[in-house]
Amino acid sequence: MTSIGAEATNSRAWTAYGEHHLRRGTHVPEVDRLAWGFWPTGPGTEVLGDLCGQRVLDLGSGLGKYAAFLVREHGARIDAVDSSPTQHERALARYGDLPGLTLHLADAADHLVRADPYDLIYSIHGLGYIDPRRLLPALTTALKPGGRLVFSVLHTDLNGRGPSPTLTVRPENLHLAGSDDPLTVSMWVLTPQLWEDLLGEHGFVVDRIETLDAPEDDNPVSCRLFHARRRVRITSRPRTSRPPEPNDALGVGALLHGPRGLLLGLHRRGTRELPGGRVEPGESYAGAVVREVKEETGCTAREEDVVLLGTLLDDVGDVVRTTVVALVTRWAGEPSDQPDESVSDWRFYPLDQLPDGLFDPSAQCLTAWRPDLSIDHPPARFHPFAPCASVTPSAGEEGAPTVAE
């Protein structure tokens, strides 16, 4: 099953689950603690720390009962997001008027990329229902640097089936009260090591993982509770261990920064990077920038709207690499994937929410432009053409990016 099909299955199942309980008028008692497993034992609210003044998100909140408990008993202000309209209906009926709690009906990843960044995101069993390849990049952008992510996920199910060491989805049963026919959901039940590796790839540090076993000796169900945080400093890395080919050793990196943030794409080798590439024979630097932006993103710019900030020199193996840093002050069009290009998935990132795994030259370009950015990368010598601070923002930054006619 594809990840899209798996998530669609889950959406239908949780909608049916909510409909079932709406018809039954199911009463769910208020909670007096957080239960990270499926039973009222083990760690509770203390794992979240002091919530006073924190911007908090409950991801996959269901009825919102845990978020409501934290609001009432711990003075928290919480956004609670769930994608099931019937679960959201039940939550609204019960907690819709509770001051300090805001209930959102939305896809989790969509909410994360649109929301202002949070200090803390927690989830009780919610992450296992969403493809990590879609969710984790959104979680990175939604957490402030140093922000915490605390979540529990299934490890071993009722049948004693343990987690998968590969990023695959599998069916699990969602049991309904008063019914002998369970609903089928699709879940990513992964080993702790795989979760930790995936989190690390997306800019998180895992501080600890707790084992949560069922209290009954004959119950095989087990969960894991992850305590993670977003790195304070952004990391960079090379695409490959090989040095660049000689004709690739002179390149340009294009900074397109506007109201939505900085434009970055995903290279097929896994690095996030600026539009750019090598300078072709006979090209000017500004001409190479305009061409690369068009080829890779579909956006158009003019050479007169390209400000050359300077050159970066570093070495990879025995090859000296030169990158010309360029700020594109005006452009037209919406970035999109282009046929036969190695970089795709173009997105705008706020400067305080840049992803990890930046391509080394892109990271170097960014700190040459904005030395205040917290990005770790190999050293490079920057030779400025003009003071970066003297560049006056134009329509590409203060208004809708356009090219003047």
From TrEMBL:
Domain of life: Bacteria
MF GO annotations: hydrolase activity
InterPro entries recorded: NUDIX_hydrolase-like_dom_sf, NUDIX_hydrolase_CS, NUDIX_hydrolase_dom, SAM-dependent_MTases_sf
Every Nudix hydrolase domain range: 216-372
One Pfam family this sequence matches: NUDIX
Record keywords, A-Z: Hydrolase
Needed co-factor(s): Mg(2+)
Gene3D superfamilies per UniProt: Nucleoside Triphosphate Pyrophosphohydrolase (3.90.79.10), Vaccinia Virus protein VP39 (3.40.50.150)
PANTHER family for this protein: GDP-MANNOSE MANNOSYL HYDROLASE, MUTT_NUDIX FAMILY PROTEIN
Protein's name according to its UniProt entry: Nudix hydrolase domain-containing protein
Organism (species): Streptomyces albiflavescens
